[in-house]
């Protein structure tokens, strides 16, 4: 596995009884690496505010939010689309040795290895899921085609091409 862009291993095996507050913040190098991984034009800021609390069943409940300031390319014009996002985080760190449920409707679960949970990578994955899959600048429109422009669609260029061996 390649090195993680935003690694924040957290030792959860000795969580205080009252729980723990965590702030995870990406530096400029980590933001640039995450932007490249996620196909962003820029990631100016990325952070997570988390509260960890032990559960009687042995797991750890994690609640909080992630925040980011980023730039994506418009799906119509490819111009920069600046965005800010804030997403709530609610997940469970599983007790050592327990594997995540295969039920797609179950809550998000994170495995723990040797008392350590890689929360930075989990937050990076949540950022990826929170991104707008079709960022669009306000007012951006696809070009209009008139009736005399000929065929449209994915094979339009082929339809306008002369048959093999003939020139226009």
Strand content: 25-35%
Shape: elongated
Q: In oligomeric terms, what are we looking at?
A: single chain
Which radius of gyration do the C-alpha atoms yield?
23 Å
Element pattern in H and E? EEHEEEEEHH
Give the number of helices.
3
Number-wise, the strands total 7
Strand arrangement in the largest pleated sheet: 2-3-4-5-6
Would you tell me the structural class of the helices and strands? alpha+beta
Q: Tell me about the biggest sheet?
A: 5 strands, mixed
Q: Which runs of at least 5 residues are low in confidence (pLDDT < 50)?
A: none
User: What's the overall average pLDDT, rounded?
Assistant: 88
How far the N terminus sits from the C terminus, by CA atoms, comes to 53 Å
**Total discrete domains:** 1
Share of helix among residues?
10-25%
Provide structural commentary.
Strands 2-3-4-5-6 form a five-stranded mixed beta sheet, covered by helices on one side. It has a two-stranded antiparallel ribbon with strand order 1-7. With 168 residues, the protein is an alpha+beta fold. The chain is 17% helix and 33% strand. The chain has helices spanning 28-38, 119-130, 156-160; strands at residues 9-11, 20-25, 42-54, 60-73, 80-93, 109-110, 116-118. The chain is built from three helices and seven strands.
């Amino acid at each position: 596995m390649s090195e993680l862009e935003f690694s924040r291993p957290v030792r959860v095996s000795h969580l205080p009884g009252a729980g723990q507050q965590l702030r995870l913040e990406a530096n400029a190098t980590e933001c640039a690496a995450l932007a490249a991984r996620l196909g962003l034009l820029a990631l100016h800021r990325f952070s997570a505010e988390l509260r960890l609390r032990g559960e009687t069943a042995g797991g750890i409940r994690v609640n909080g939010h992630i925040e980011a300031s980023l730039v994506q390319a418009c799906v119509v014009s490819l111009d920069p689309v600046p965005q800010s996002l804030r997403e709530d985080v609610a997940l469970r760190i599983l007790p050592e040795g327990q594997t995540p449920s295969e039920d797609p409707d179950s809550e998000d679960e994170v495995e723990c290895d040797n008392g350590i949970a890689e929360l930075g990578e989990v937050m990076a994955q949540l950022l990826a899921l929170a991104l707008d899959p079709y960022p669009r600048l306000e007012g951006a429109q696809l070009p209009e085609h008139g009736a005399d422009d000929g065929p449209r669609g994915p094979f339009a260029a082929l339809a306008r091409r002369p048959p093999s061996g003939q020139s226009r």
